[in-house]
Amino acid sequence: MTGSESGARLQPLQRGDVHLWQGTTCRDRGRSLDLSVLSDAERYHLDGLPLPGARALYLASHLALRRILAIYDGRPPRALRFKRAEGGKPRLVDGRGLEFNLSHSGEMWVLAVARHSAVGADIERLRNGDRSEEVARRFFAAEECSAVAGCPRHLRSEHFTQIWTMKEAYIKATGQGLALPLNSFAVSYTDSAPEVLRSAVGAVSDWTISCWAPAAGYRAAVAVHRADARVHHFSFVEEDDPAVSGSLLRKPHPVRP
Ligand SMILES: CC(C)(COP(=O)(O)OP(=O)(O)OC[C@H]1O[C@@H](n2cnc3c(N)ncnc32)[C@H](O)[C@@H]1OP(=O)(O)O)[C@@H](O)C(=O)NCCC(=O)NCCS
């Protein structure tokens, strides 16, 4: 696969665009996959994962990560090298402004890709049981706790999870991870206009935040350090050749709080 072959099936990634890719481990179960594109560090990490499900998800997401980034970068997937920035965020070596962030949960992964704008992505599988208010009190800013508490009980867990993904996407975009106090910024979730209410990095208006449901039972968010970023959704399909198939997703229905 070359970058131009696959890239021709996608719209170009312009400054201000964010391409959101999503995929699943399910199709890959039991198939023999070519691990040679992974680095020694990735194979070492994979070997250390104790649970088969976690191994399958790590493998699927990192094979996809390399194949997708190669489309935009132009180098072959195995030639891509990664380094960790201060704070732990993975970056491409010689990435020339190509920014990305990966997240995985359950049996799904999402990957955000942008040019010259810091991005963070997060996906979470909805959990049974509702400890939302208790966990919110522990981690969320006051505005966010009030929003969760004010939500009708049957929607509370979804609302909580969506705010969680937004907060996580934000801290991952900044690259600071949990060094950034979680109550030093606040977000607000509505299906039509999710927003950063208080920012710890730059002005509130410098941020674009977007939420979606990648599949039933999952919630996800992306945060971009840029005003008015344009978000496009794609699915990743592992084909037998194997090649990347980029297909524009029907815009997922927003999640109603
Ligand atoms: C990176 C971090 C911020 C998120 O981790 P997570 O939610 O467990 O996992 P995700 O699947 O969303 O993200 C993991 C991926 O993010 C990337 N990543 C790792 N460190 C990162 C950092 N400091 N900044 C941005 N991205 C990072 C990696 O690509 C990693 O995937 P990989 O290990 O397969 O390469 C993690 O350090 C963490 O500690 N999270 C704490 C969760 C929490 O308390 N959140 C509160 C939200 S209210």
Give a verbal description of the structure:
This protein is α+β, with helices and mostly antiparallel strands and 257 residues long. It has a single domain (3-248), classed as Alpha-Beta Complex (Ribosomal Protein L22, Chain A), CATH 3.90.470.20. 29% of the residues lie in helices and 27% in strands. It has six helices and twelve strands. It has helices at residues 3-7, 40-48, 52-73, 132-139, 142-149, 153-174; strands spanning 17-24, 82-84, 90-92, 98-105, 108-115, 119-125, 186-188, 195-198, 208-212, 218-224, 230-238, 244-248. A five-stranded mixed β-sheet has the order 4-5-1-11-12, with helices on one face. It has a three-stranded antiparallel β-sheet with strand order 6-10-9, covered by helices on one side. Strand 2 and strand 3 (90-92) form a beta hairpin. Helix 4 packs antiparallel against helix 5 (142-149) and helix 5 packs antiparallel against helix 6 (153-174). The longest helix has 22 residues, at 52-73. The radius of gyration is 18 Å and the shape is globular. The model is unreliable at 1-8 and 240-257 (pLDDT under 50). Keywords: Transferase. Residues 118-223 form the 4'-phosphopantetheinyl transferase domain. This is 4'-phosphopantetheinyl transferase-like protein. Pfam families: ACPS (PF01648). Belongs to the P-Pant transferase superfamily. Gsp/Sfp/HetI/AcpT family.
